[in-house]
Each structure stands twice: as structure tokens, then as C-alpha cells.
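Human: We require from you a protein record containing the residue sequence and its fold in C-alpha cell form, and nothing else.

Assistant:
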Amino acid sequence: MAQAKKVEFGNSEEIQTSSNTKISKMEKVGYASGDLACNLIYATVSTYLLFFYTDVFGISAAAAGTMFLVVRIFDAINDPIIGSIVDRTNTRYGRFRPYLLYSAVPFAILAILCFTTPDFDQWGKLVYAYVTYTLLTVVYTFINVPYGALTSAITRDNDEVVSLTSVRMIFANIGGLIVSFFVPFLSSYIGDMTNDSALGWQITMGIMGVVGTILILFTFKSTKERVKVVESSVKIKPTDIFEQLRVNRPLVVLSIFFIIIFGVNSIINSVGIYYVTYNMESPDLVK
């Protein structure tokens, strides 16, 4: 059995298992399943929700595009706040895993609500879209931030970290492929069967949500936080990130780089479905 050791870092103390601890294949698969789940749900939202809003739900392109911009700005402000909340967490399940347990079901429910079409007028639809999409991004952050940090709590062995990350990337790509090819087919098939394209999208998102929830709960169940960090006496405030942006030029450059990359990826993902529908004149592929 691996023995624990203590490593001191200034005012904090890290308690971790010995460096030769090997992570089982089951735990690696369990951890990677979290990224598969996030892609099944959030990649579906990122890729198809704008099209759903404009061509199925009936929101204008200008209103939907503005909403996406507003929510993204809110998300940028919200992320460091949630990160600070996660950093202060200390439960019997660990620091990061509880968020997977308690956020999995709300995450799926909100994703389904985003693809639901209540019978509201234009203003009602827009308010409904703002509320459901904003809440979805908040809950997703409560899953994604601790999930990304979970690797460092599972092990600090460099070889095991590389192995965990590699399996995670494989599962993430599998999720992306499923979303790219399976979601349009399934939504179209169900829409044709029910003569209701809106219902086709809702049921498809429901399937993605149920599968994603099961996978996230599997990640919670199969992983273990071996590295525990005692809370430091140095208090970090959410506003400290803005101070770092002021004095840390490499961080600013890196932030701009990621904003550009993710922005371009988001545009590519969102416009692809419009291209297939209107340029290729094959709307049957994405009903």
C-alpha cells in the first residue's frame, strides 16, 4: 500500500500518496468519461443551439447572436468567481468530486430546457432563452472547472498525469464525433417520425443529457482524490485575477490567444449547420 508523504509549500501543506502510485485502467476510463459526458451535452449546445434558436424556436439571428455575446461576457466574469468557490471547498467527497455529483442532473435538465420550445411571444422566448442558457453555462462551469482540476488531485506522478490526460483526450474526441454525426441524424429521424422538428431536437438532447449524466456520475464514483491540500493562510480573492492581468503580460497574451482560438472554434461549429442547410441545400441532414 502506498504511503503518504507531506510536502510543504509556503503556508500550505500538500499531503499526497507516494509517487509510484499507479492509477488503474478503470479509474482512467472513469475520469475520461467526464470529458465524454461534457462533450455529449455542451458540444451539442455549442454546435446546434444557435441554429435551434433561429430556425426552430423562432428567435431572430440578431437577438440570438447578441444573447450569445452577453452570456459569454458574463461567463468570463463568472468563471474566476466559481473557481474561488471550488478552491475553498472541503467535503468528505473531496474538493472537486462533489461538484460532479451535485451538478450532473441540473446540467442535463438545463440542456434539455434550452432545446425546449414553450409557447411564448417573442419577448417571452428571448427571456426564456437568456435564463436557461445563462443557468446552463453557470452549471457547466461548476462541472468543468473542478473536473479540469481533478487530475492534480488524483495523482502528481507525471507519467500517470500524461496517461490520464491522453485517455481523456481520446474520450473527448469520441464525444465530438458522436455530436457531429449522431445528433443531426437522430434529431432528423425523431423529427420525421413525430412530424415535429422541435420535439426531435428536444428528445435528442434528452438522450444526450441522460447518457451524459450517467457518465458524470460514473466519473464521480470511479475516481479518488489522493492529493489533499490544506487550505493556505493566504486568502485569494476573485478580483485577484484582474490584478494578475494588469501585471502579468504573458498571462494577458495567453488569455487573448485562447479567446481567439475558442472564438474561431465557436464560429466554425455554429455556422457549419447553416452552411449545410442553406449552401448545400440539404436541410434534411439537420432537421
In short: The first strand starts at residue 4 and ends at 9. Residues 1-19 have pLDDT under 50 and may be disordered. Residues 40 and 91 are 28 Å apart (CA to CA).
